[in-house]
Write a structure and sequence with these properties.
Layout (H helix, E strand, L loop, with lengths): L20 H8 L3 E5 L2 E4 L1 H20 L3 E2 L5 E3 H7 L1 H4 L6 E3 L5 E4 L4 H11 L8 E10 L14 E11 L2 H21 L4 E5 L10 E7 L5 E5 L6 E3 L5 E2 L17 E4 L6 H8 L7 E8 L2 E8 L6 H8 L4 E3 L2 H6 L18 E5 L8 E4 L5 E6 L1 H4 L4 E3 L9 E2 L7 E15 L1 H5 L3 E3 L5 E3 L1 E8 H11 L1 E2 L2 E2 L10 E5 L5 H16 L4 E4 L5 H11 L3 E5 L7 E6 L5 E5 H13 L5
Parallel strand pairs: 3-7, 16-18, 18-21, 29-30, 29-31
Antiparallel strand pairs: 1-2, 4-6, 5-6, 7-8, 8-26, 9-10, 10-23, 11-12, 11-23, 13-22, 14-20, 15-16, 15-17, 19-20, 23-26, 24-25, 27-28, 31-32, 32-33
Pfam families: HGTP_anticodon, tRNA-synt_2b, tRNA_edit
GO cellular component, one term: cytosol
Keywords: Aminoacyl-tRNA synthetase, ATP-binding, Cytoplasm, Ligase, Nucleotide-binding, Protein biosynthesis
Length: about 575
């Protein structure tokens, strides 16, 4: 491509809402332009990089035996109502009505659509297993679109769905997709981890997220450097250090002791007032779980994980009770506790962190009073225990005992074992070899294609601009002609441009009538893997070659250039 004809509007300054490096650089380099909040157009360089990511995805999906198809983006409401997700999915689902008043949704995901297709087209076990995928635009009404392509309302996604006859078959399909994802992200030049995760609104059982490590990531990754256990914070499990011991506070009392704690409503205030470590205070969090009141108990130094509450109770919605609702169940805001609440009216659950606690403190359900001397085994004998908390710094790995590490990550992809969640709800069955009717056993596998593009830029840049991995760079080579008025330089550039293209190497030729400094600065901003500069030695057919990532510069004769470029560009995409 000749750069003087390229639609590549670079920017010196970027909007103030471009908070992260990938967003700023993609705007500055002319890869994307915003149409509305969370909605972007891909300009030629951005689209070329996106196509290269799609190519890698297609190659690896095909290698894993998946078949590509394309499904509609407009879904009739009846499909989502039949699966139960029309109401469950929430306000992120973009809904609309046609001129006849029929309700539709713009596809946020395609489990319902693919399940009905397979239900109607496959009836025998002889056609199984099968994995189908598509690359298509998805729509979600994000409350707060941010970070450019990392959290948008319209985005490109690869979604795949496997259909098997047994759990063992699903295990095999799941592993094939897991391995394909590992190859895809490695070929895209990303540093990433596969972590155990929660399935959220998609549903299902076993699930892993593939996370690109980045300081600006919105997800927290908990991992063990020793045994390689990794999970996101919603799912992570750890082993707490022993709680601090106490010398009095009623540790040896035969019953809880009511203590006046005037206007003491926070864990920090209570800890200071009673000279009691927060790890010995049991905090009571009043929740509405699917509309019913629930009190969740955990140590005062820990944080409640609402996703774990949902999973523990098999719920779909968790929210905090209002002050009025707290009074309605017989308690007082700031002094909530499990003792004395009517169990028939309020369900009480507890995090495993409070098991075995003695001499503990808990709210008394009376203004300005707490109980001390609480013995969890004695006083909370009927409470059901679960893992309800976030893992915290300093905890040990539950597998090998080493100290867990924390990192930030950008979600790139997610793989799920759905089982029969959708096939049972939508009547998708097949006939086995015994003529028995069985539901399909399903898996679901997604990659945020446009997110991958942004994550690559987030991980691959320096103070001058983007540093593309060769596998997805818009062009492998950026050819610069320093003096376009020089006939010999232009003739050599033209010959080199044609020779490289004939060898299958993509080339962006900067043939603009611009100062050398502008060309070099733009080349660094655009970040193609190799830069070839035709300058003063054009008469000798010598060209300077610079590696964008390493900064290495060498001079090459015209005859050496094609082989050199092929060698350096191919090694990054050789998995």
């Amino acid at each position: 491509m000749r750069q003087q004809r390229l639609l590549n509007p670079t920017l010196r300054d970027v909007p103030s809402d471009a908070e992260v490096a990938s967003h700023r650089l993609m705007l500055r380099a002319g890869l994307i332009r915003q149409l509305s909040s969370g909605i972007y157009s891909y300009l030629p360089l951005g689209l070329q990089a996106l196509h290269n990511i799609e190519r890698i995805i297609r190659e690896e999906m095909d290698r894993a035996g998946a078949q590509e198809m394309l499904m509609p983006a407009l879904h009739p409401a009846e499909l989502w109502q039949a699966s139960g997700r029309w109401d469950v999915y929430g306000p992120e689902l973009m809904r609309l009505s046609d001129r006849h008043g029929r309700d539709f949704a713009l596809g946020a995901t395609h489990e319902e659509v693919i399940t009905t297709i397979v239900r109607d087209e496959i009836s025998s076990y002889k056609k199984l297993p099968v994995t189908l995928y598509q690359i298509q635009t998805k729509y979600r009404d994000e409350r707060r679109p941010r970070f450019g392509l990392l959290r948008g309302r319209e985005f490109l996604m690869k979604d795949a769905y496997s259909f098997d006859r047994s759990a063992e078959g699903l295990d095999s399909s799941y592993q094939a997709m897991y391995d394909a994802y590992t190859r895809i992200f490695a070929r895209c030049g990303l540093t990433f981890r596969a972590v155990e995760a929660d399935s959220g609104a998609i549903g299902g059982t076993d699930t892993h997220e593939f996370m690109a490590l980045a300081d600006i990531g919105e997800d927290t990754i908990v991992h063990c450097p020793a045994c390689h256990y990794a999970a996101n914070l919603e799912k992570a499990v750890g082993v707490l250090p022993q709680a601090e011991t106490v010398t009095d506070n009623g540790a040896d009392s035969l019953a809880p002791i009511s203590v006046n704690t005037p206007q003491i409503t926070t864990i920090k205030q209570l800890s200071q007032f009673l000279n009691m470590p927060a790890s010995r205070i049991i905090k009571s969090i009043a929740l509405s779980v699917d509309g019913a009141p629930v009190i969740a108990l955990l140590r005062g130094d820990l944080e409640l994980n609402e996703i774990k509450v949902k999973n523990a109770l098999g719920a779909s919605d968790v929210a905090m009770l209002s002050d009025e609702e707290i009074r309605r169940i017989g308690s007082v805001p700031g002094f909530i506790g499990p003792l004395g609440l009517a169990q028939a009216q309020v369900r009480i659950i507890a995090d495993a962190s409070i098991q075995g606690l003695t001499g503990a403190v808990i709210g008394a359900n009376v203004a300005d009073y707490h109980y001390t001397g609480v013995d969890a085994l004695r006083d909370l004998a009927d409470v059901a225990y679960h893992d309800l908390r976030n893992v915290s710094e300093g905890e040990n790995c539950h597998r090998c005992g080493e100290t867990l590490a924390f990192a930030r990550g950008i979600e790139l992809g997610h793989v799920f074992k759905l089982g029969t969640k959708y096939s049972a709800q939508l009547g998708a069955t097949f006939t086995d070899e015994k003529s028995d009717v069985q539901p399909f056993i399903m898996g679901c596998y997604g990659i945020g294609v446009s997110r991958v593009l942004a994550a690559v830029v987030e991980q691959n840049h320096d103070e001058h601009g983007i540093v593309w991995p060769a596998s997805i760079a818009p062009y492998g080579v950026h050819l610069l002609t320093v003096q376009t008025q020089n006939a010999e330089a232009m003739a050599l550039s033209e010959e080199l441009y044609n020779r490289l293209r004939q060898a299958g190497i993509s080339v962006l030729w900067d043939d603009r009538d611009e100062r050398p400094g502008v060309k070099f600065k733009d080349a660094d901003l655009l970040g193609m893997p190799l830069r070839l500069t035709v300058g003063k030695k054009a008469v000798d057919r010598i060209v300077e070659c610079k590696n964008r990532r390493s900064g290495e510069q060498i001079e090459l004769s015209f005859e050496q250039i094609v082989a050199y470029c092929q060698s350096h560009l191919n090694q990054e995409d050789s998995l």
